[in-house]
Amino acid sequence: xxxxxxxxxxxxxxxxxxxxxxxxxxxxxxxxxxxxxxxxxxxxxxxxxxxxxxxxxxxxxxxxxxxxxxxxxxxxxxxxxxxxxxxxxxxxxxxxxxxxxxxxxxxxxxxxxxxxxxxxxxxxxxxxxxxxxxxxxxxxxxxxxxxxxxxxxxxxxxxxxxxxxxxxxxxxxxxxxxxxxxxxxxxxxxxxxxxxxxxxxxxxxxxxxxxxxxxxxxxxxxxxxxxxxxxxxxxxxxxxxxxxxxxxxxxxxxxxxxxxxxxxxxxxxxxxxxxxxxxxxxxxxxxxxxxxxx
Length: 294
What we know:
By secondary structure, the protein is mainly β. The chain has strands at 4-9, 16-21, 29-30, 49-51, 54-59, 63-67, 74-78, 84-90, 93-98, 101-107, 114-122, 124-129, 135-139, 144-147, 155-156, 166-172, 175-180, 187-190, 198-199, 211-217, 229-234, 240-243, 250-252, 265-268, 273-277, 284-288. A hairpin with a 2-residue loop joins strand 8 (84-90) and strand 9. The two termini are 29 Å apart.
């Protein structure tokens, strides 16, 4: 089986800490690693990426951490720059960027990082790749940037809808989908690699909540029929929604109660279990995939 890994800051000591689960999120244990004792800035769900057999995460705004098993961590070296806002992996490349900068960094292994130039200096906040070398990143300022060569060169993309603050982004089935930190009941999408953006039909979304992490989940029913969909969890951890096309969204009923305030981030093992984390406490298993009821 696989491992779920989560990083953060110990509330009692203020020091970095990590947890892991080997039983699909049912139970959690503390990592045996002693982290640098200077705070855990950047060691968060948004900045913990997995790819090429490695977990990669920034810590203390100055160091990069690596883990091959999600349990034990080692210091990989200096972070490319200060506190990062997003780290993700796609098409063999780790990508990380920060606030108020026009520089983005790429790495094939989490060790050696190469500086890349973005089209403007702003608060870049989220990004995603399509698995074939196209990447899109978005900012708090309505700006987006696009790379067609796996993160090497970047050009300006289309502006997000007015008042939009990009929160999390996902790619699937030819669409880029981004959630909005500035307003409830708002999701935007692009069908042309970030050149233009439109608001989704979010009539069925809960209007009282801001939506956090969006992911594209590839799933196959027992009869072999694809059941792929975008899935989003709100900040309270109480509402889950999915969309087959990234445009029209439907509420779902979980088979068990989602704990409040566990909507900070979530992930899936690809085999039916979703796990979410919050700003405090231990991670929690949210819902079994395949039991969603639109």
